[in-house]
Amino acid sequence: MVKASGFIISFIALAAAYSCASAPSSGSLDGDTGTAGGMAGGALVAGLLLDSKEARRVPARKPRAMLAIASPRVLGKAIGMGVLEEKGYPTWRLSRSEALSDVVKVRIGFSARLPEGGVERQSGMLSIPAPSGGGRRELSWIVFLKGSEHHRDKVPSRRGANESALMDAAAALGYAVWAPDYAGMGDAEGAQEYCVPESMAASALDGLAAARAYLADRGDEYAESGRLYIIGYSQGGIATMASLKAATGGDIPIPGLRIVAAYPLGAPLDLMPGIPFLADDGVTVERPDFAVLLAIGWSRAYPSSIKLDEILSERAIERVVPLFDGTRDTDELLWKLSKALGRKAGEVRDIDLYAPAYRTAIAEDPSSSAFFSAQEKARLDRWAPPQGLRLVLAAAPSDELVPFETSARAYEWIKAEDAEADVSLVRLESQSHGLAAVEGLLYALIDLDTIEGGEGL
Q1: What is the pTM assigned to this prediction?
Q2: Domain boundary among 345, 377, 409
Q3: How far is CA 8 from CA 159, 217, 432, 445, in A?
Q4: Domain range spanning residue 421?
Q5: Total tally of structural domains belonging to the chain
Q6: Could you tell me the CATH number of the domain that includes residue 434?
Q7: Which of 342, 361, 377 is a domain's end point?
Q8: Are 85 and 156 in contact (CB under 8 A)?
Q9: Bridge-partner residues for 38, per DSSP?
Q10: Confidence of residue 36 (pLDDT cuts 50, 70, 90)
Q11: What pLDDT digit, counting tens, does each position of 67-106 carry?
């Protein structure tokens, strides 16, 4: 949920210098770019491939260069390496670096269902290994879910996601990688539906249906293995667990695919990051940008029950909410937000942001707040996945934004519900939320790639 550290940005920017189950058909495309059919009673339905366009081709030497840069000696200067070394990262990196493919990146437009009803056009990026020229390539799927971002164009479909280099590496290893932008980002209009599990799961899985349709139209070049992995860090970790729940519970079917493993990493699964503890004299809100974005997003997703003016102060609605138009990055947004409230950066308080009645409700009877109750009901640290599915929770004990205990509580709850559940809790070693993103995502990529190599299938 935090902007990546300077090292991660530099690392990724440098790295970026470089028969099976059948998919459900979502209509036909005319060439590489087109509009799919699919109207039900005159209305657009969810999961349609609306259009596609090949964005670019990434030569194999670029993800190979990324893995070269990510040597234990270099990477170990910024992130903890003990967990990765125990996982076999040094050997894995060397053995897999020579087996990489060029990557074809395809921008996908699709229809996604919305919690507030109806569907909307959304966007995302499909990354696949280039055709081999020697017959069909059998691909397993990875749904790769991005972390928090304020700027609507810093998303996978626009080449701006912080995780893009790792997405490219996964595709170069031989996977079909689907990465949605989420509601309110990329092509989608309106406000972000920030950290709304129902919304993020729809972006992930309705978009996956559209990406599968694109792949199915190229049946002479590709086939599906039928296996699916879901991975994400921070906000992407919430989206991972939400997608897992929606798919396994049948809310959003994924016919022909079996989820093998899921990786909710560094994720605030209790879904309460926007509810500060309210002392009598008020408290400083550590990330007021996220607090406001949560209120905006949840009130958009559930307009009949969650009202923005029942959460935020009049001053915040008048001066701060207009800043969240998707055109500002984190630093600019935090500076302008603080200035709009007459505070210095880092000194915004709950009394600046929240309506008096909301503060009273949270202090005296949280359940009386529709916003609080909706987040409480949607918590994902109190849900156990079905048996036969590998779940890896990972977080850093030193994480300054998302407490490690959040993942630990989820692990303990799942094991209490099902002692035989295939769930593990990995203690990442990196010293910040941002740095742990690289460590956690690399761990997940090694783990799923090891499974694909034959273990456990």
Answers
A1: 0.90
A2: 377
A3: 16, 36, 11, 17
A4: 6-270+382-452
A5: 2
A6: 3.40.50.1820
A7: 377
A8: no
A9: none
A10: very low
A11: 888 888 888 888 999 999 999 999 999 999 888 999 999 9
